[in-house]
Amino acid sequence: MDDEKRAHLLSFLKVIPPVDFCCVYGSVLHTTNHDKSTMVDYILGVSDPLQWHSENLKMNADHYASWMVLLGGAKLVTEVADKIGVGVHFNPFVTWNNKMFKYGVVRMHDLVQDILNWERLYLSGRLQKPVNMLVDNLDIKDVNSVNLRAAVSAALLLLPPKFTEVCFLAIRPLRITIFVISFVFMQEDLYAKICSLSYMGDLRMFFAEDRNKVKKIVQGQFDLFQSMYKPFLEEYEGKDLLRFSSSENQHANIYQALHEVVIGSREEATKRMQKVLRRTVMVSSARQAVSGLLTVGGVKAARYLTNKMQKAWRSWT
User: Which residues constitute the signal peptide according to the record (predicted)?
Assistant: First the structure.
């Protein structure tokens, strides 16, 4: 991301209270996206959401649903996020400087716990995909390496048998240890599987998301996925678990396992992994959907859902 674009994205932070963490994600990172009307998505990490929302309501009350402002203010906003949602409050369709923004506010403690333990696999899932960190006072980029390494391990296990058959992998957040034996796969397949982890069981994927969403994310941000996961693939390569095979087509680069080890039941491990991921994501997506409907207000909720369903419909026709 060039300095001018980064400065433009940072400028929005001047109109809201200070944050400890900020990243942008989504279509704004697609190199092929030149649509200036696209909504810019932010994740904001703060130490105390109640205090932060109290300050933000004084500065930007119009960012919130009017009924929440009138009935409970910052306390209600925070309680709905924590007790109904997954600890994140989103303000979508915020207009500033002729641009549309959406930002989600999360407690830093909750963000770190999700990154390390996949408790909700909500923001940790978002951080498994390319983001651009604009503010990182608590070194979340370094903490997120645990999340990325686990995502690689989980994806290797879940790749179809024709791609994967092995190496020893420990997936810390799910407390799963597996043995894999020889595998051959294309980088794009791996990134697509990583990208899909946080969508497994997501209720939105059944009716309100583009059926080709994962493919579009990976193809639109392939270089960013490469730079994100290169250190972890090289780590496996350095341990003689993977071998990189060059190709003129960078999307077709192949890795192979070099060592054979004793395998437990790969099928059993895969089923367990899928079950845990689907349950976690389904619960989180349902809770956040209900929270979102309550917090953004009827008009904005209908507008957001309509936009999503239109994209989903176009992907099926």
Answer: none
**Per-residue H/E/C for the chain:** CCHHHHHHHHHHHHHCCCCCEEEEEHHHHCCCCCCCCCCEEEEEEECCHHHHHHHHHHHHHHHCCHHHHHHCHHHHHHHHHHHHCCCEEEEEEEEECCEEEEEEEEEHHHHHHHHHHCCCCCHHHHCCCCEEEEEECCCHHHHHHHHHHHHHHHHHHHCCCCCCCCCEEEEHHHCEEEECCCCEEEHHHHHHHHHHHHHCCCHHHHCCCCCCHHHHHHHHCHHHHHHHHHHHHHHHHHCCCCEEECCCCHHHCEEECCCCCCCCCHHHHHHHHHHHHHHHHHHHHHHHHHHHHHHHCHHHHHHHHHHHHHHHHHHHC
Tens digit of pLDDT for each residue in 182-237? Answer: 556 678 889 999 999 999 988 776 655 677 889 989 998 999 999 999 999 888 87
For the segment 63-75, what is each residue's pLDDT rounded down to a tens digit? 999 899 999 999 9
Q: In percent, how much of the chain has pLDDT > 90?
A: 53
